[in-house]
Amino acid sequence: MFELLQYNFIQNALAAAILASIACGIIGVYVVVKKIVFISGGIAHASFGGIGLGYYLGINPMFGVLPFSLVSALIMGTVSKKSKIPEDSAIGILWSLGMALGIIFVYLTPGYAPDLMTYLFGNILTVPRLDLYFMLALDIIIIGAVYLFYKEFLALCFDEEFTTVQGLPTQKLYLFLLCIIALTIVVLIKVVGIILVIALLTIPASLSRKFTHNLKQMMLISIIFGTVISVTGIGLSYALNVPSGATIILILSLVYGLVAFGMEINENRRISGN
Amino acid sequence: MEKVIELRDVWVRYGTQTILEAINLELKEPNGLLGIIGPNGGGKTTFLKVLLGLLKPYRGSVKLFGKSPEKSRELVGYVPQYRGFDFDFPISVWEVALTGRMSHTGLLRKYHEQDKKAAEEALKTVEMFQYRDRQIGQLSGGQRQRVFIARALATNPKLLLLDEPNSGLDPHMQDELYRLLDRLKQKMAIIMVTHDLSAVSIYVDKIACLNRTLHYHDSREIPIEDLEATYQCPVELIAHGIPHRVLSNHEGNS
């Protein structure tokens, strides 16, 4: 196993797994406690439009995704709160609109779209160096934003109305949080792909919630879960020659199922023991 | 002396429906407890949201301490109604109390020593300081209510607004709550809305009825006409355990 570490692509994959676990560990906690899984899924899928745009313009699709996901976060956040249609319907419409745009862009691009599947389903074993630096930069922005706005985000997620009454611009803070989620999605795309991003935003954070009632500890524990499980997933997918993103998520789901089931049994035993 | 509250001809609509109609209210005394009673759906929460600046009336003016609600954030404490709230949220009693300081810190500034002192004092006032490290889900309903009052007190308000603070509390805990409010009202003006007539206890100094319109006579008695207009049906007050008359003397009712 250790000689594997000498391969460049394995080193890159491990670095990508750690960078992705940091981003999703921190931001996934907000997604889970604020119960904005669906809108986050919407932003992730709509970002496919950015991939298509990247191909169409002939630039690195990652640079197409970044502005596209930020814009979709802003539009979704605004439309879902301000318009008269129900929030989940608004998200559903924008979710599919972004994907449809992506399909049209890819179709209009002359020739063949290489690596399209890696953006949809992820392939951590093919992450180039340049993308790693890009992910690192985004991680630094994410950590910086959460450090600066920690008390504001905590208050916003816990009680939005009270935070407004305290005089904070909650609508802008919410949009800012959605933008940070969009950046996180961009970091995660290479690892598991657009389709499965939402798993990395929800499962590690939901797992960590079972072990602590402290937001900071939740972030730390989900980073650890994310890192250990994605590294395991990379190893397994390499050994079994199956897609890495899907393998990581299967392991995450399995671990979550076992932990939830184990705690349930424990709880029942404690209650009947009394 | 500035008036605590001055509402002039306030109207609020949701779509085509009028929720509040021609509300006038003037509150001058800087302390004391005003109870506002009225049926569910009578606009009580809307009324508080207007005072908090969360809802803009389409007509009329709202002044707290001579300023708009947006400019008096540091003077107003708010205890919302928690129905269907996620008490599994990973936040401690201490962190909840500190969020009441954000009207002083604003954006980006971390909590300072004086913020921590105010939060500590607020938690001590409601006797919850020893539970500061508990996650809020690990508290009883009454304890949680006290934490939310502490969060409002951490602001150091001159006006405290409570939305149905007695709902979900057993009689013993309600009594405790009223005694707490009784202590607090020496130092600030308090408005409590409730649909529960029995909440109109000995601790309320003044009382008003709200059902789209507000009946308020600057006293602790309500004419039976106002009460019946508010509830739109004959109201029988069972006044046991209430040492003063809530209803004024009334012909054929003595």
3D architecture notes:
The complex is a heterodimer of chains A (274) and B (254). Chain A has helices spanning 8-33, 37-46, 48-57, 61-82, 87-108, 116-121, 129-148, 150-158, 160-165, 170-209, 215-240, 244-273. Chain A has 274 residues and is mostly helical. Chain A has one domain (2-273): ABC transporter involved in vitamin B12 uptake, BtuC (Orthogonal Bundle), CATH 1.10.3470. The model of chain A has no long low-confidence stretch (mean pLDDT 90). Chain B is of the alpha/beta class. Chain B is 27% helix and 23% strand. Chain B is built from 7 helices and 9 strands; from the N terminus they run βββαββααααβαβββα. In chain B, helix 4 (113-125) crosses helix 5. The longest helix of chain B is centred in the middle third of the chain and has 14 residues, at 141-154. The N and C termini of chain B lie far apart (40 Å). In chain B, 41% of the residues are buried. Chains A and B meet through helix 8 and helix 9 of A and helix 2 and helix 3 of B.
CATH topology of the largest domain in chain B, by name, is Rossmann fold
Q: Please estimate the helix content of chain A.
A: over 70%
**Mind telling me which CATH architecture of the largest domain in chain B this is?**
3-Layer(aba) Sandwich
Determine the strand fraction of chain B and express it as a percent band. Answer: 15-25%
Number of helices in the DSSP assignment of chain A: 12
Write down the overall geometry of chain B: globular
CATH superfamily of chain A: ABC transporter involved in vitamin B12 uptake, BtuC
Secondary-structure class of chain B: alpha/beta
Query: In order across it, which strands form the biggest sheet of chain B?
Result: 5-6-7-3-8-9
- Amino- and carboxy-terminal Cα gap of chain B: 40 Å
